[in-house]
Specification:
The radius of gyration is 66 Å and the shape is elongated. Helix 8 links the parallel strand 9 and strand 10. Among the domains are: about 100 residues, Nucleic acid-binding proteins (OB fold (Dihydrolipoamide Acetyltransferase, E2P), Beta Barrel); about 140 residues, Rossmann fold, CATH 3.40.50; about 50 residues, no CATH class. It contains 13 helices and 13 strands. A 5-stranded mixed beta barrel has the order 1-2-3-5-4. By secondary structure, it is α/β, with parallel strands linked by helices.
């Protein structure tokens, strides 16, 4: 019985055959790029085709970093180096690319990429060098062929948008021998003509037709121009070297005319709006200044000597009136307080007199009890000598003269004898 295989087994077998083939493990294939897609992961998927054949290709992000040095697009003729293998999931034979380089016309792309890298490293592509377009240009410089369709497209757009603009043509060759030098001379010539902005452009064409705009001398002339330059070479799909050094890039010459021009009716409407805004601003400013002037005038009137004198008089009059009122009030308050104290005094005096009499009686009784006269009336005598009162027997001597005082009189005497209480006790 014949053996049956799974699909994965067959694909694995074919893949091993392809990868085991020495020629297919590394080869270079030339063809036209088709269905070129840059995946967000960094991988590039494309096909190589010729009239009756097509080969699927993939370049992984790791290989792309080293093996793809230009922007690959559909239609390019390239040479791809890599290995042939089978993608098991789709059962598709494809070329796993490790390097891609231009072939035939691709040599022009390779040269263009080389020039781009050199100018980029010099800093000619830096955004810091880009000049802004003037908002309201009057004279528009045009560098293109005198009889080309690009000139007519630009003039038509400018006339339609604003008939007041002044286009200034600096004619030049746009392709063929001597075109690059002619473009450079035309740019330098128009730069001295007093224009506000310059459009450098032509209609679309192949890379050979547009090659003059990829020349380094043209790129440097555009970069060195002191007037803003708009690059408008070819159609939207065309990219030339001057696109990277120009101040602004337009997809077509017509689009460049749109960029540098402005509609006259838009300007009229803008002027009307500005006039209205200016009128409102002036009215607001005048009203603010009038209010300020009235405030200053009122302040001046307030601070004038006459007004100050009047205010001072009013202040003095008010203060005098208040003083009189305060004095009347103070007199009234004192009179009321005096009457009140007088009434209190009338009520308190009799009570105070009675209390004083009672206190006086107590003091008189105490005084009477302490009176020497009362003591003398009880048979005591007050005895003195020439020296003073006799308070001790020791102050007396036998024969001393003494004087005594009794309740109703006194006496003089001579001391016959002196004794002390101790002497009496000893007897």
């Amino acid at each position: 019985m014949e053996r049956t295989y799974r699909v994965s087994q067959v694909n694995a077998y074919v893949r091993n055959l392809l990868e085991g083939d020495r020629m297919l493990s590394r080869l270079t294939v030339e063809g036209e790029v088709s269905n070129c897609k840059y995946h967000p992961s960094g991988h590039v998927y494309f096909s190589l085709k010729e009239q009756d054949a097509q080969l699927a290709c993939v370049m992984f992000a790791s290989a792309r970093a080293r093996g793809l040095t230009f922007a690959m697009r559909d239609g390019m003729q390239v040479q791809v180096t890599g290995r042939i293998s089978l993608y098991d999931r789709d059962g598709r034979c494809q070329l796993y690319a490790t390097a891609v380089r231009p072939a035939g016309l691709g040599l022009l792309y390779e040269e263009l990429e080389k020039r781009k890298r050199a100018l980029y490293e010099e800093g000619l592509f830096d955004e810091a060098h880009k000049k802004p377009l003037p908002p309201l240009p009057k004279r528009i410089g045009i560098v293109t062929a005198e009889k080309g369709a690009a000139l007519q497209d630009i003039l038509q757009i400018l006339r339609r948008r604003n008939p007041y603009l002044q286009p200034v043509l600096s004619p030049c060759l746009v392709q063929g021998d001597g075109a690059a030098a002619s473009i450079c001379r035309a740019i330098r010539r128009i730069e001295k003509a007093g224009v506000d902005v310059i459009i450098v452009g032509r209609g679309g064409g192949s890379i050979e037709d547009l090659w003059a705009y990829n020349e380094e001398i043209v790129a440097r002339t555009v970069y060195d121009c002191e007037i803003p330059v708009v690059s408008a070479v070819g159609h939207e799909i065309n990219t030339t070297l001057i696109d990277y050094v120009a101040d602004v890039v337009a997809p077509t010459p017509s689009a460049a005319a749109e960029l540098v021009s402005y509609k006259s009716e838009d300007l009229d409407a803008r002027l009307v709006d500005l006039h209205a805004a200016l009128y409102r601003a002036m009215a607001t400013r005048i009203e603010a200044e009038r209010t300020k002037m009235e405030t200053l005038a009122a302040r001046l009137r307030y601070t004038s000597p006459a007004n100050r004198l009047t205010r001072d008089r009013e202040t003095v009059s008010e203060a005098a009136g208040r003083l009189r009122w305060l004095m009347r009030r103070a007199l009234t308050d004192e009179r009321t307080a005096l009457i009140h104290r007088e009434e209190q005094l009338r009520k308190i005096m009799p009570q105070r007199l009675r209390q004083a009499r009672a206190d006086l009686g107590v003091l008189a009784a105490r005084l009477e009890g302490l009176s020497p006269a009362k003591t003398l009336s009880k048979g005591y005598a007050y005895v003195t000598t020439e020296v003073g009162p006799v308070v001790s027997a020791e102050s007396l001597r036998k024969g001393s003269r003494i004087r005594g005082y009794v309740a109703d009189g006194g006496f003089d005497a001579c001391v016959v004898d002196v004794w002390r209480n101790e002497d009496t006790k000893n007897e």
